[in-house]
Specification:
Elements: H1 2-17, H2 21-31, H3 48-64, H4 76-95, H5 101-130, H6 135-153
Length: 155
């Protein structure tokens, strides 16, 4: 049980880094049967429409993140989106193992806040410290978020 709680925090961290990568990964995992949400209130995460929607939004987010006018992830709107998707994904991971959805949502939310603020600070400091353009940090961050999400939903 304790590993699934850590995974709920972890998928929240992914949502903090990229708000739509986490739900896209969870939706794909549920759709492919890696996460069993059949009889939970989150069964909709396995639907084809949910997979299409979150996948399209995740791709859009990855592109939008590279644009200069994109707001900071710690601004109220983007942070709220991360909190919501982190909570949804944390609850989904817990639901797949018959654990409390409320605890999963709380842990996913906590992870999202940690991921948003830590990710922002690390990215900002790397750009300044390495004296590189933001894109050279953003792209590896995309890969880290995607890889971590896949690692968490396939376990």
């Amino acid at each position: 049980m304790s590993y699934i709680l850590a995974f709920a925090v972890g998928i929240g961290v992914v949502a903090g880094l990229r708000s739509l990568t986490a739900p896209a990964a969870v939706a794909w995992a549920a759709h492919l049967g890696w996460l069993h949400l059949h009889y939970s209130p989150l069964a909709f995460m396995a639907s084809t429409w949910t997979v299409i929607l979150f996948s399209a939004l995740a791709i859009f987010e990855l592109v939008a993140d590279l644009l200069p006018n994109t707001p900071k992830r710690t601004a109220p709107g983007p942070l709220a989106a991360r909190i919501i998707t982190g909570g949804l994904c944390g609850a989904s991971l817990c639901a797949s193992t018959n654990q409390s959805l409320l605890i999963g949502a709380a842990l996913g939310t906590l992870g999202a806040v940690i991921g948003a603020f830590a990710g922002y600070e690390i990215r900002k400091r790397l750009v300044i410290g390495l004296n590189v353009k933001d894109i050279f940090i953003a792209l590896p961050e995309d890969l880290i978020a995607t890889g971590l999400a896949l690692c968490l939903v396939t376990r």
